[in-house]
Design brief:
By secondary structure, the protein is of the alpha/beta class. It has one domain (about 1-325): Alpha/Beta hydrolase fold, catalytic domain (Rossmann fold, 3-Layer(aba) Sandwich). The chain contains twelve helices and ten strands. The protein has helices at about 1-5, 80, 95-100, 125-145, 155-165, 185-190, 195-200, 210-215, 225-235, 245-255, 280-290, 315-325, and strands spanning about 35-45, 45-55, 65-70, 105-110, 150-155, 170-175, 205, 240-245, 265-270, 295-300. The chain has an eight-stranded mixed β-sheet, sandwiched between helices. It has a two-stranded antiparallel sheet with strand order 7-8. Strand 5 (about 150-155), helix 5 and strand 6 form a beta-alpha-beta unit. The longest helix is centred in the middle third of the chain and has 19 residues, at about 125-145.
């Protein structure tokens, strides 16, 4: 622990940088005068849907603001994950929060999810890395920037870290929320492994409102507003009642999928206090092996697996904002 502490371990939602920028949830029905655009990337015969938000439309000759690319998880597609509206409940759109902070915010549906092509594949982590290559080619074309910040949630964090390992020149700062490394000691993955034979023999699994509600109650009931699960289901279920099994199979049979020694970018690991997807011991093992001294570890108090949609999501906004806007260290 002394070595970890010496090299930048920060536990708690109150990371110091940008402390004055923390904000409470926005009032209900706050207007969102943000510029948006939709794009399509191609991965062979697969069409991948991308969505973008920023303060205003790009102007000729202007320098593009920093890009933040949000990477969704195993059960919910991109826009419901990161651009959700919950009427009367305050701000839940991570895209809106960071677009208002001046970022050019992008997200993408992986193969088999949302508006992207539904194929016979199982959309595993390796497939997700290929999707991110195709998606970031579109980002580079539209913004002129080959390097972006990435934030991944749950299996999206594994995808983002695997992409950072494979394409280090494309990743600036990396936020891993609800990440898991080896899966050792994870109650969630232990329970999920009971279905491993199903994941091996089926490329899609059922996904309905009860499963979506379970995301918010399986670790610690009361860490989210009950209206969130219903709003999320209303936004997501029009895309169908099944999702790919690839990330579930990878997380129960193939971990670890990321070698921390090959993740060269600055990294922020964020976990909810009650998240059952990984233990602190597992995550701190990963954290200790990261080569960059520019790294942080944060626990969001009172949150469980889905920190982005929790009652304490403002702690995530603050922690991410401080990390993404941190001045570059002076080499000594």
């Amino acid at each position: 622990m002394p070595e970890i502490a010496r090299r930048g371990l920060l536990i708690g939602a109150g990371i110091a940088g940008g402390a004055g920028l923390a904000r409470a949830a926005a009032p209900p029905d706050t207007p969102r005068p943000l510029w948006t655009a939709e794009y399509w990337a191609r991965k062979g015969e697969v069409s991948l849907y991308l969505y973008r938000k920023r303060l205003a439309a790009p102007a000729p000759g202007e320098a593009n603001p920093p890009v933040l690319f949000l990477v969704h998880g195993s059960s919910i597609s991109a826009r419901p994950s990161f651009d959700l509206t919950v009427p009367g409940a305050g701000e839940y759109s991570l895209m809106d929060v960071f677009a208002r902070d001046g970022f050019d915010v992008w997200t993408m549906d992986f193969e088999g999810y949302g508006r992207s092509s539904v194929t016979e594949g199982n959309s595993d982590i390796a497939s997700g890395v290929a999707d991110l290559r195709a998606g970031t080619d579109v980002v580079a074309r539209e913004t002129g920037l080959r390097k972006a910040h990435f934030m991944g949630e749950s299996s999206g964090a594994i995808r983002a870290a695997a992409f950072a390992m494979a394409e280090p020149e494309r990743v600036d700062r990396l936020v891993l929320e609800a990440f898991t490394y080896t899966g050792k000691g994870s109650p969630t993955l232990g329970k999920r492994a009971e279905q491993i034979d199903y994941y091996r023999t089926h490329n899609r699994r059922p996904r309905g409102i009860d499963m979506i509600r379970g995301i918010f109650t399986r670790d610690r009931p009361g860490t989210s507003d009950p209206r969130v699960a219903d709003a999320l289901a209303a936004a997501e279920l029009p895309f169908g009642d099944t999702v790919p099994t690839g990330t579930y199979l990878d997380m129960t049979a193939h971990l670890p999928l990321v070698d921390p020694k090959r993740v060269l970018s600055p990294v922020l690991i964020v976990r909810g206090q009650y998240d059952g997807i990984a233990t602190d011991a597992d995550l701190l093992d990963f954290f200790a092996q990261l080569p960059s001294p520019d790294r942080q570890y944060a626990i969001i108090a009172g949150a469980a697996h889905s920190v982005t949609l929790s009652l304490n999501r403002a702690g995530l906004w603050h922690t991410m904002r401080a990390f993404l806007t941190m001045p570059k260290p002076v080499s000594v």
